[in-house]
Structure formats: structure tokens, C-alpha cells
Amino acid sequence: MKLHIDSLDAEGRGVARNAEGKVVFVEGALPGEQIEAALLDKRTAFDLARMVALLEPSSGRRSPRCPYFGTCGGCATQHADARTQVAAKQRGLEDCLARIGKVKPEAMLPPIYGQEWHYRQRARLSVRYVAKRGGALVGFRERRSTFVAEMRSCDVLPERISLLIPKLRALVSELSIRQRLPQIELAGGHEAEVLVFRHLDPLTDEDKARLRAFADAETVWVWLQPGGPESAHPFHPANGRQLFYTLPEFGVRIAFHPTDFTQVNHAVNRLLVSRALRLLDAQPGERIADVFSGLGNFTLPIATRGAQVLGLEGSEPLVARARANAVANGLSAEFQVANLFEPGFEALGPFDKLLLDPPREGAVAVVKSLPEAWPRRIVYVSCDPATLARDAAVLVHTKGFALRAAGVVNMFPHTAHVESIALFEK
Q1: Is 154 a catalytic residue?
Q2: Domain that holds residue 160
Q3: Across residues 296-310, what is the average pLDDT?
């Protein structure tokens, strides 16, 4: 069947409608393209298809850089240039706001771009020992599969870590617990890189010796994680360099543990924080809340502007590290543990302005609990346009805010992940 591709979906697939008007998702197709497709799966609400011939290519189509693209599930859109990727994300954001939130921004902010390659400072690499395939596999999972992709490099990881993949495969293959080591987590900082080895069985002395030798040879800091994220602890070297990233515009340095949440793209995070602070326009003496404040990524820059800022976060360890970051930077910022998924936020006010940076679940309990009298301005940073749109509906249709502006941030190039930012004002 011949199809015209209208857009990309949340997984980076082309979206079209067949002759009967039914939605068809086509992997590998780009907006504006005319294709010939073969039906793969027919469902009630939509069909799945694969492209068998490209009749009219998009001007934004390009050859994928990575030899594993198409098999590896780490990237979805390497076959599109940066402008095509970002335009699809911008359209996705606008569509969500209109369809779910029934709102339209008064202005669209210019997209924030960043480096396309070797940007990813956080990654969870899957590990699987497969004797029939010559030993351990280390990398991302295959697309729509639990299998680990056969890969020896990765162009979105830091170049030095990409070059380590074959060495990690060899290392894991030599360990006695190679069948019980499901993942290696990367956390990159300004001056150090940590590899956290998740192991389900205890390490032998020989295993530990191999890990020490690897850490010394490759100048990485090895941590071990025998249980949940809270069990992660330094292994070798005993006194590794502290993990931190910087926000030079604000003179801020933020230390973190390798299992803490941080943005994967440090360079784009700097641009995001800069834009958020310009939109917030924090003034000396204003009382501002940074809700879902984490390590203080936005809280501490706000504090540099002389505002009275309160960071609210659900995780006690993150609050403790945020307080330490405030002290280390010589900044006056208060942090408090709070359950932000239940009503009651208004008891902490009043606040002149809010900055919201919630997880994918959004901040619906917070926005529903806002009183009529405050705040007058909200900057909302989102990692899911659907929950942003849902919360925007509450702010605009029931709380009296106007959606002044919104735009996308290309935090994850070559993926369908949409990071965005929006400004609401009374």
C-alpha cells in the first residue's frame, strides 16, 4: 500500500493514514515522505507496517551514522537530520497541548539544540553472557526485544566510554559471576567517569582483582551495586574523583552520586537552566519554590539571583545532597522533603513564582492545589508532553493562567524523547 507520512509518533515511527482513514505506524519513515508499505499487524485502533520502498524521500533524510542503527534500540531517528528530529518533537508538543490540554501557546520558543554525538553522560548498559555468541554482550537492548544488541561502539556515549565497550565485554566474560551481572551503569561528570556494576551474586577475590586492574588501566572509577540503587558504593580506586557537573553561567558546581538523577546531556542542561532562569526572571527578595528540585539543578541558580528559594523534593538522599551543594557553593537555599504527589502543597506558600521539573508522571497534584492568590508565574520543565498538556489544562482552564510560551529542548538527539519548557502567567 502507498502511504504519505504526516508526522512521527512518540517512538519515532512515521504516522500515516490508509485509504480508509485508519492510522498506520511505519518504522523508519519520516514526515513528508511517500512510501510503499507492507502490513505487519492489523489492530482495532491502528495498523503496524514496514516500509518496503521509499518513493519520495524527505529532504531531512540522511544515512545513519551508527552501524547498529535499526537493530539497537538506543536510537530511533538517526536516519533524520537534526532539524527534522527537532521539528517532529516541536510538532508533537504542539499536538499534545492542543489535543490533551486544549491549549495553545501564545508563542513558540526557539528550539534548544546541542551536540548530536557523544553527548550521553548517563546510560544503563544491559549485560548478557551468551556463550554461543562468543561471550558477554554489553550495550543497549535490541529494538522491541529483551536481547542485548551486538555492538562494539556507541556514538551517543562519550567517546572514551564507547571505546571501552569491547574491553567491558572481555572483562565480564572473565568474571565468575558473568551470568549474574545484568547491567553496568555509566555516570559521567566534569572530571570523572563512574561505572556501576550491578551484581546479583557476591564477587570472588579474583573478580575483584580483575575489576581493580580494569579501573586502573582505563582510569575509570568502579562502583558496585549488589542490591537496589541505595546499595551502590565505591569500590576502586578507594578515593576516586568526585562526580560533579558545572553551570558556568551561574558559577555553580553540583556534586552527585552515580545513581542520582541528573540530566543525561550536560551541555544542553546548561542551556535549559539558562532559559528557565530567563523565563522565571527571579528577583531579589521574591519567594520562589523549585518543585521536584533534585540536587538543586535549578534551585541553586535561582539562589544566585538573590531570591528566597525553597527546593521541594521527595527523596531524602537527594535533599541531603542538595543541602550539601548549597553549602559548597556558598549559597542560601532551603531544601525540604515533601510528598509532591498528594494535595497539600499550598500549606508551604505563599510563593511569588514556581519552577516545576517533575518526572514523567507530571505535577497534577501540585497544580490542582494552587490557591487563587499565588503564584503569578510558573516555569514548567517537562520530560513528557502528554502530562505537561494535562497539567496545562488545569492551569489554564481552572486556575486562571495563560500559557505564554512553550518549546522543545533536544536533550536526547536521535531518540523520540521530548524535553520541553513552558511559561505560565496570571
Answers
A1: no
A2: 122-188+192-236
A3: 98
